[in-house]
Amino acid sequence: MPLTTIDNKAALIVIDLQKGVLTLPAAHPVDQVLARSAELARAFRSHKFPVVLVNVVGGAPGRTDAAHAARTSGQSRPTPPPQWADLADELDAQPDDHRITKKTWGAFHNTSLHEHLKELGVTQVFLTGVATSIGVESTARSAYEHDYHVVLVTDAMTDVDVQAHQHSVERIFPRLGETTTTEEIIAMLKEHA
């Protein structure tokens, strides 16, 4: 479903656009994803809409097939470099931006995100970032379950796997909210003033 409107209480949530994550392989050019997310952050700030910048510093402790396969093959989880979790400079983080540091895929689980958005009266959230099928999708699912109008900016996100990205964009996101592009949002914001 394409974007129908921008609520008067909208917020942008940027998922995991941090220095370490941006060095990982991606299905789409991460510099373009980052540039579009930064453009949206500037536009939301200029319209006095909240911007939430999310980074990830760990993972859930549960057992997974992937973790088990890595352990049994003798691999261990490497220690990330010192600036791995730092937000990308291009996002130009501002003092009024709300920051969320998460240890799981989704930005709502065990964080203050929902309380912060509710305190501001936010009714609609726009999501960008990486990875489409992991952090973005998990956050979108939680946002939907928390009764937000969810908007997924599909040209401002990517995944390590093109098929995973496509599955989220084509099969999952239309069930969670509206899908759109950076250009469409910028145009609607100009009319929203």
Can you characterise this structure?
The chain has one domain (10-59, 89-192): Isochorismatase-like (Rossmann fold), CATH 3.40.50. It is built from 6 helices and 6 strands, in the order E-H-E-H-E-H-E-H-E-H-E-H. It has a 6-stranded parallel sheet with strand order 3-2-1-4-5-6. The protein is an alpha/beta fold. It has helices at residues 30-46, 65-72, 113-120, 132-145, 162-176, 182-192, and strands at residues 10-15, 51-56, 98-102, 124-130, 149-158, 178-180. The protein is 38% helix and 19% strand. The protein is globular and about 55 Å long. It comes from Reticulibacter mediterranei. InterPro entries: Isochorismatase-like_dom, Isochorismatase-like_hydrls, Isochorismatase-like_sf. Keywords: Hydrolase. Residues 10-184 form the Isochorismatase-like domain. It holds the Pfam family Isochorismatase.
SS class: alpha/beta
Architecture, CATH level 2? 3-Layer(aba) Sandwich
Sheet having the most strands: 6 strands, parallel
What is the H level of CATH, i.e. the homologous superfamily? Isochorismatase-like
Order of helices and strands: EHEHEHEHEHEH
Please give the alpha-carbon distance between the first and last residues.
24 Å
Which fold name corresponds to the CATH topology? Rossmann fold
Tally of individual helices: 6
